Amino acid sequence: MHAQRDPRRFPAQRHRPERYLALLLCLSIMTAASVAWADPRVPPRAPALPAPRALPAPPVPAIGRVWPVGTRPAVLRGWEPPASPYARGHRGVDLAAPPGTAVRAVAAGRVSFAGRVAGRGVVSVELAATGRPPLRTTYEPVRASVRKGDEVAPGQVVGTVEQMGSHCARTCVHWGLLRGETYLDPLSLLPPWLWRNGPSRLLPVLGVPLP
Hints:
Layout: H1 17-36, E1 74-77, E2 93-96, E3 102-104, E4 109-117, E5 120-127, E6 135-140, E7 142-144, E8 151-152, E9 157-161, E10 172-179, E11 182-184, H2 192-195, E12 200-201
Parallel strand pairs: 1-12
Antiparallel strand pairs: 1-2, 2-10, 3-9, 4-5, 4-8, 5-6, 6-10, 7-9, 10-11
């Protein structure tokens, strides 16, 4: 038989609400103390923000006022954008021009380079008011008549076509257009009214016997 407890020595356990209230009060004091003693040098962590999306490149404005050479230059080879930065293609336009032909700035800008690259004379012009990074036109092979930093107006002569250094079967000017490191079609700089006056394209004549 189990011994019975003496009610005088073991009083009945009762739930005391004051104990729970004291426990809640103690937890509140500890939380307030931890906030008050927080290191003020450590700023609160800001919520993570979504990564900004890259803005699309602005379109090429048709700000050209003249052709780089002549008034109706023949396009020996057009722009052929490569599939990747190192793939094959044609990163510009070849315009037929005999040696000594004046090469003109198609739009207003500032000369960013005038010198020789791999034995070829090159002139590069950053076009004014064309965004960031600005559009940049290049002409080669050209003997420069301007220097880096020169301001040029539309139609101003920047050099003359060189005899050597052309990659065309006949002497030509390779005209390029870039925004940053991205190659674009330089013909897109020309407004429609300039297209009415050129260019002509040299196409193969088929079915005609040779003299």
